[in-house]
Specification:
Shape: elongated
Number of domains: 2
Distance between the termini: 52 Å
Helix content: 55-70%
């Protein structure tokens, strides 16, 4: 028996217990109440599955609103009739006999008259309509809420996959441009770039297909990317990359920080003629990640650079943060000074602590350099 069947069984058991508690108060005892409720449960169950798995898929989801009205009215009438039939033929006589055994002499005028006369008594028509529809209405609301939530998750996951997929061509385009420039110069550093790019693309292709990856591994790839860029700039770039805190036991959505680093190189170092510089600081403290990156700005910016705040990479980061972290993040962008651009990303990792028992995260990692107080100053970054 699969999980879905068990979920439905548990749901109806909970409904049975709940209705017994509610309606058992007005009966001789709760055991009697349970027996009476069990008489009506087949009506509730059949009514729910007809509406939830036939009416809703065939009419409501296909937006056949005019056709659904008579179908729903027919379902309401049939369930009411079945409910009253069980009540008149089985439930009421059962309750009458229980009361008769307890009191000896007991008269219940609800049982007066023929089946048709009892069926058409106005007060009991209203009661039956209420009791036959209340439980099913609650169940349908829960079912609709579940469908809405599942659809929302599908839409969010599709959007996240699209946003994450945008990073791959964006990053690849920039890096291949760098490699192309070096091959034109017949640089001896070209093979190192190919090797580094291969490692990064392996990470993107095989390890980023999960919702989260180990923070330590994601930072290693970030370091590899910085190393590739450093090779291109050689000694012309003043680069500082510091990491403070323990990266172990944390997970993060993949490639969140990479677009910020890409922008620092693309709109800062690559367009600054004299003494370009980039400072990257990553700090982990009390389950809070702070990623700060600042870079030099060229004296005169190209029209593309002037759109720094609105490019694909930053839009991507902002959208992914909204979807994944909601109010547990902060992304601040500062461009007030003429020659400095600063981006500060803060994430609350309280709910992203990784344990060995968690599934879906890579456990075996490639060797990563020391994760505390790593500082690269004016030198090539080793892989």
């Amino acid at each position: 028996m699969n999980k879905r069947v068990w979920q439905h069984i548990v749901f109806w058991l909970i409904c049975t217990v709940g209705m017994t508690v509610i309606y058992g108060v007005g009966m001789p005892d709760y055991m009697t109440g349970l027996q009476v409720i069990l008489m009506f449960m087949p009506v509730h169950i059949l009514y729910f599955y007809v509406v939830a798995y036939w009416v809703m898929p065939h009419y409501l989801r296909l937006r056949k609103y005019l056709q659904v009205i008579p179908v729903l009215l027919a379902c309401i009438f049939i369930s009411w009739f079945c409910f009253r039939t069980i009540e008149i033929l089985f439930a009421d006589p059962f309750l009458y006999n229980v009361e008769l055994k307890k009191r000896g002499a007991f008269v219940w005028h609800k049982l007066d008259g023929s089946f048709r006369a009892q069926l058409l008594k106005p007060v009991y028509i209203v009661n039956a309509l209420e009791q036959s529809n209340l439980l099913v209405l609650v169940a349908i609301c829960l079912k609709s809420l579940k469908i809405w939530y599942e659809k929302r998750q599908v839409v969010l996951q599709s959007e996240l996959n699209f946003l994450k997929g945008q990073i791959h061509p964006h990053f690849l385009f920039n890096t291949l441009n760098n490699l192309y420039a070096l091959t034109l110069q017949r640089s001896l550093q070209s093979p190192a770039i190919v090797l580094g790019l291969s490692n990064i693309l392996r990470y993107m292709s095989y390890e980023c297909n999960t919702e989260r990856v180990l923070l330590k591994r994601d930072v290693e790839v970030l370091q590899n990317y910085v190393a590739l860029e450093k090779i291109r700039y050689e000694d012309r770039l003043d680069l500082t990359f510091s990491i403070v805190g323990n990266l172990e036991h944390y997970s993060i959505p993949p490639l969140l920080m990479l677009p910020l680093v890409e922008n620092a190189f693309k709109h800062g170092a690559s367009e600054t003629i004299h003494e370009p510089w980039i400072n990257i600081n990553l700090q982990i403290k009390q389950h809070k990640l702070t990623f700060k990156i600042s870079n030099s700005k060229p004296a005169t910016q190209s029209p593309l650079a002037e759109k720094h705040l609105g490019n694909i990479g930053l839009k991507n980061v902002k959208k992914r943060l909204e979807l994944l972290f909601h109010n547990e993040h902060s992304l601040q962008l500062f461009e007030e000074e003429e020659d400095v651009y600063v981006a500060i990303l803060e994430l609350d990792l309280t709910g992203h602590v990784y344990t060995a028992s968690q599934k879906g995260l890579p456990v075996v990692l490639q060797s990563v350099k020391q994760t505390e107080n790593i500082v690269y100053e004016n030198q090539n970054i080793d892989n």
